[in-house]
């Protein structure tokens, strides 16, 4: 059926927003170990190759430098059914059933990043970086109360950025970058059969594709104060792959299929303003605000063989804020800490089990130790406290046919997360 294929393909983009991410929505902000330690409170104004994700101008004065970081991400979450139902053809409404609680559907993982930069003459610099800005995996059991919204969701996006920067004056630096993003997604969702108690069917989808974006930024070095601002464009992704629907019986057996399909969605644009102020030679205060253009994720355009469809998402723009500090204990050791508040872009009345996102606070601590005159070791730890969120999502399967079946998911989500980061930076 046309609607079955559309729903399965729509989940391609929905996999980009699973569960309790480590920034609101589906953005993974762990792109710098030093950033983790100060809760991402000064990255747009930071100098060094590991800050190139936030501001391409950051490499102008960093010299010849390379960075490699890895972030272990661990989430402890619980999702609980609070009265989900399913309405079959004829108007019979029953509890949707399944396990009423799910534990740790968000999988632990490691997010890597790498960057290298070199000066070109006295005024220019070139850089190359690899990041994983959207990279998650969630997994609900086949018996879960959330099965009609999500079973398995996996999204991997790798961002390859080429950066050029210039020292315009003694105090002003500018930079631009071009990004190639490779996205790969796989997911599965349960489909209800028409007889209460009958085994569920399933849809499975995989797709991938390359798409493009850009970034630009500037830094002003004003004595003890450095101010940075940057803009990162949205990326319009189109994933091409195959969709499989199986296990449907009786009047809806015709919806079983194995066919090519595609889905399109956009990541948000990000505008960042940050500042670092050296109060003394040892103490530096940091602050940063980011505006996320989540309204770009307003819909998912689906292109199945049966014809195009548009599925609204209605994400809302958000603003995050962070403050922190760095303290140089001596020439070999620097300590840092910070706190960040990051609200969710998901609308309260339309939150799905695949996207049980909530507002969050992040508290970070970290350190940098100079191992040699050229090599530094960075370490960071962050605790993320998620506010309780509510799942409130209705889905009509086989809409527009006599087999129309509606599920109404109602639940709560609680959780917290931990990030442990290590990185090496070297001058060469």
Structural description of this entry:
The protein is mainly β. It has a single domain (2-427), classed as Beta Barrel (Porin), CATH 2.40.160. It is 4% helix and 57% strand. The chain contains two helices and 22 strands. The protein has helices spanning 2-14, 33-37; strands at residues 65-81, 85-87, 93-95, 101-103, 109-120, 124-139, 152-167, 172-191, 201-222, 225-232, 236-246, 257-266, 270-278, 283-292, 299-303, 309-312, 318-328, 333-342, 360-370, 375-386, 389-397, 405-427. A 14-stranded antiparallel barrel has the order 1-5-6-7-8-9-10-13-14-17-18-19-20-22. Residues 1-23 form the signal peptide. GO terms for molecular function: long-chain fatty acid transporting porin activity. Belongs to the OmpP1/FadL family. This is Long-chain fatty acid transport protein. Pfam families: Toluene_X.
Quick rundown:
This protein is mainly beta and 428 residues long. Helix content is 4%, strand content 57%.
């Amino acid at each position: 059926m046309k609607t079955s294929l559309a729903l399965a393909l729509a989940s391609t983009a929905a996999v980009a927003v699973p569960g309790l991410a480590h920034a609101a929505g589906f953005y993974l902000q762990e792109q710098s170990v030093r950033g983790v330690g100060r809760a991402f409170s000064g990255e747009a104004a930071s100098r060094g190759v590991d800050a190139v994700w936030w501001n391409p101008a950051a490499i102008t004065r960093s010299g010849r430098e390379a960075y490699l970081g890895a972030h272990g991400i661990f989430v402890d979450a619980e999702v609980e059914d609070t009265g989900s139902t399913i309405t079959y053809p004829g108007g019979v409404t029953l509890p949707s059933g399944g396990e009423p609680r799910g534990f740790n559907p968000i999988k632990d993982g490691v997010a890597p990043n790498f960057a290298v930069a070199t000066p070109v003459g006295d005024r220019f610099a070139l850089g190359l970086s690899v990041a994983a800005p959207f990279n998650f995996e969630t997994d609900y059991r086949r018996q879960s109360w959330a099965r009609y919204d999500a079973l398995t969701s996996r999204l991997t996006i790798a961002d390859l950025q080429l950066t050029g920067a210039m020292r315009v004056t003694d105090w002003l630096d500018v930079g631009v970058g071009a990004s190639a993003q490779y996205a790969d997604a796989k997911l599965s969702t349960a489909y209800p059969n028409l007889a209460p108690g009958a085994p569920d069917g399933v849809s499975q989808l995989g797709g991938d594709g390359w798409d493009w974006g850009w970034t630009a930024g500037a830094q002003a070095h004003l004595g003890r104060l450095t101010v940075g601002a940057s803009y990162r464009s949205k990326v319009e992704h189109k994933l091409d792959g195959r969709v499989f629907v199986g296990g449907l019986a009786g009047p809806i057996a015709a919806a079983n299929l194995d066919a090519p399909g595609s889905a399109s969605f956009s990541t948000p644009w990000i505008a960042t303003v940050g500042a670092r102020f050296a109060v003394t030679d040892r103490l530096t205060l940091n602050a940063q605000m980011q505006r996320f253009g989540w309204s770009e994720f307003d819909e998912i355009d689906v292109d199945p063989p049966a014809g195009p469809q548009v599925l609204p998402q209605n994400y809302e723009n958000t603003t995050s804020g962070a403050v922190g500090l760095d303290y140089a204990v001596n020439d070999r050791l620097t300590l840092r800490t910070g706190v960040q508040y990051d609200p969710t872009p998901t609308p309260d009345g339309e939150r799905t089990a695949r996207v049980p996102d909530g507002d969050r606070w992040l508290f970070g601590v970290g350190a940098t130790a100079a191992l040699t005159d050229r090599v530094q070791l960075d370490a960071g730890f962050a605790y993320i406290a998620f506010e309780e969120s509510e799942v409130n999502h209705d889905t009509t399967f086989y809409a527009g046919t006599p087999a129309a079946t509606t599920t109404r998911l109602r639940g709560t989500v609680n959780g917290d997360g931990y990030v442990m980061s290590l990185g090496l930076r070297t001058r060469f």
